[in-house]
Amino acid sequence: MYWRTKHMAKPLVEKASERLLELILERGYEVGDKLPNEYELAQDLEVGRSTVREAVRSLATRNILEVRQGSGTYISSKKGVSEDPLVFSLVRDRVKLTTDLFEVRYLLEPRIAERVAQFASDEDIARLEEIVLAIEEAVAAGDTKHLELDVKFHCMLAEMSGNLAMTSLMPVINQSIHLINENYSNRQMKSDSLQAHRNILMAIKQRHPVAAYDSMLAHIISVRQVVLSEWFDKDMTLHGLNDHK
């Protein structure tokens, strides 16, 4: 099965949670809709009922599902929390969402980097350097931990900017990074991102706000171009337009 190979490195409950979310999107459930009962979901997910219960509980903690005692499981009307506070998980058009999130990142992240170059302490800069090195080591070792560290790098920058509103908007940036990592695998993009992190770090270390701003903007533009190019190539292949190559 496709979803098994796609998520095979993850724990069973996590895989079941992700597949359940996929089913919700595929079937077009909306806020307030009731999900099939536990037995039917177990059949759909090809797992045991105890795993279904854990998967439902996992999505409930993210405010995606709501369990009503004696009634069943429903799509929650609450806004998401922590991991997905803007409920991006329920957006079906992933390409549109990814490109729209890039637009938001254009507005936020260059300014974040600029402020960090102005206000970061020496200790902050040392922490950033540690993360950049850790990302490079993880990529070199083929360790998927680099994905988590990438998110952490951008979160740290927002925190160091000293702007509370910037920090509260980090889920926008985080979700963009997660979407890219989930759907795009271009190796050149990884290499370019490593160099971009270096450039951003260097500008911050040199206390050069304009260079930090420009380096972050260049980073986001570069990643966006690669993502859109890869998406275009996949679309062409899907429609049989690359057969002449």
Automatic annotation (TrEMBL):
Keywords: DNA-binding, Transcription, Transcription regulation. The keyword Transcription applies. This is Regulatory protein, GntR. It comes from the Bacteria. It comes from Streptococcus suis (strain GZ1). Residues 10-78 form the HTH gntR-type domain. GO terms for molecular function: DNA binding; DNA-binding transcription factor activity. PROSITE patterns: HTH_GNTR. Pfam families: FCD (PF07729), GntR (PF00392). The keyword Secreted does not apply. InterPro entries: GntR_C (IPR011711), TF_FadR/GntR_C (IPR008920), Tscrpt_reg_HTH_GntR (IPR000524), WH-like_DNA-bd_sf (IPR036388), WH_DNA-bd_sf (IPR036390).
